Amino acid sequence: MVGDFERLAQEFVNPEAVLHYRVCGGQDARGRPRLHCNVTADVEMLCQRCLKPVNVTVKTDRLLYLAASEAEADRLETALADEEIDVLVAGQTLDLAGVVEDEILLNLPLVPMHDDCNMASAVDV
Ligand SMILES: [Zn+2]
């Protein structure tokens, strides 16, 4: 639940919203460790126009490479040369909840809004 994620709980109207996430560890062809991060969340945010809740669906599907240090992360980023792939600096422990949180926060709309606020207020949720 969103309520379990401290940073997310501040963003959403409904802390009981359910997040679905699956993070698979693996390696690429060269044996470099990476995570396949798959997150889906249906949440409610405040519409920035009428200030009523608006449903927002967040979907992410991304590859994250893992690096042991900043220096290694820089090298990896240069080697991969792919804007779509992120390199994560992770030590012995990896904060998975933090990774999932970042994924969602990065994919939230900056200014959540209804397509049509008049429609939304007519239904009056
Ligand atoms: Zn609105």
Describe this structure in words.
The two termini are 22 Å apart. With 125 residues, the chain is of the alpha+beta class. It is built from four helices and four strands. It has a four-stranded mixed beta sheet with strand order 1-2-3-4. The protein has one domain. The relative contact order is 0.20. Bound molecules: zinc ion. Zinc ion binds next to helix 4.
Task: Give the fraction of residues assigned to helices.
Answer: 25-40%
Radius of gyration equals 18 Å
Mean pLDDT: 85
**Strand numbers in spatial order across the main sheet:** 1-2-3-4
Specify the biggest β-sheet: 4 strands, mixed
Run of helices and strands: HEEEHEHH
What is the 3D form?
Answer: elongated
Cofactors, ions and other ligands in the entry:
zinc ion
Number of helices: 4
**Extended strand count:** 4
Structure classification: alpha+beta
Which stretches are low in confidence, meaning pLDDT under 50 for 5 or more residues running? none
N-end to C-end Cα span: 22 Å
Number of domains: 1
Strand content bin: 25-35%
Summarize the entry for a quick read.
It contains 4 helices and 4 strands, in the order H-E-E-E-H-E-H-H.
List the helices and strands and how they pair.
Elements: H1 6-9, E1 19-27, E2 33-46, E3 53-67, H2 70-80, E4 86-89, H3 96-107, H4 117-123
Parallel strand pairs: 3-4
Antiparallel strand pairs: 1-2, 2-3
Bound molecules: zinc ion (ZN).
Zinc ion binds at residues 47, 49-50, 52, 54, 113-114, 117, 120.
